TrEMBL record:
Keyword Nucleotidyltransferase assigned: no
An example Gene Ontology molecular-function term: superoxide-generating NAD(P)H oxidase activity
Pfam families listed in its UniProt record: Ferric_reduct
Annotated protein name in UniProt: Ferric oxidoreductase domain-containing protein
Alphabetic keyword roster: Membrane, Oxidoreductase, Transmembrane, Transmembrane helix
Amino acid sequence: MMLMLYILINIGLLIYVTIYRVTTTKSHALVVVARICGMLLNFNCAFIIVLMLRQTILLIRSNRVLRKLIPVDDHIDFHGVVGRVITALSFLHAIAHIAYIAALTNYSMATYLFFMNLGIGWVNGFAPLSGIILLLILVTMVICSMQWVRSGGHFGVFYWTHLLYLPFYVFLILHAEDFWKWIVGPLSIFLLEKLYSIFARYTSGIGRTCIHTATIEQSNVISLTIHRPKHFS
């Protein structure tokens, strides 16, 4: 049900942008493709944050009705699917823009991609250069989140490179004029959850675990003796 709703939202946005760009702005086909990808990226880059709202997901899971309607247990797999969609849309968005510049303008590719004097974008012509930075960050995150990295003894690589989501969203806000409108809600909840987690971690004993001993057994198995919390059941 959630997957179908997700697909329908993407299709609806695609149709809306296509109609608007073809009938109202009379845009070139390559620009239409770039704008479609841009709109879908706005939605998907905001939605992927929703899938990582852990406290919200816990609240949904604790409600008998909501957990039947919303498959919260699949949120990590769904996060991966949306991440792949974002990657594909990002490259298609970039290719469409580059193809349009190469075929229909007199600007050199270097001038378009690396200089800000053309005034492209809402922050002093920063859109093309920020787009390159975003692609580099995205590719790094995608490669380092692959299964062979996470399960090959390099989970730390996955964890630390995934923190690149912080500069990714900063540059995305600078890159896309309207993206802040999409992210303000999910990002606000995300930040509130982070603050709550930090507060709960350092102001209460709930959730704290004390390890008494750690022993390396045969076959590199680690044996832990952990104190049982008072209210654990």
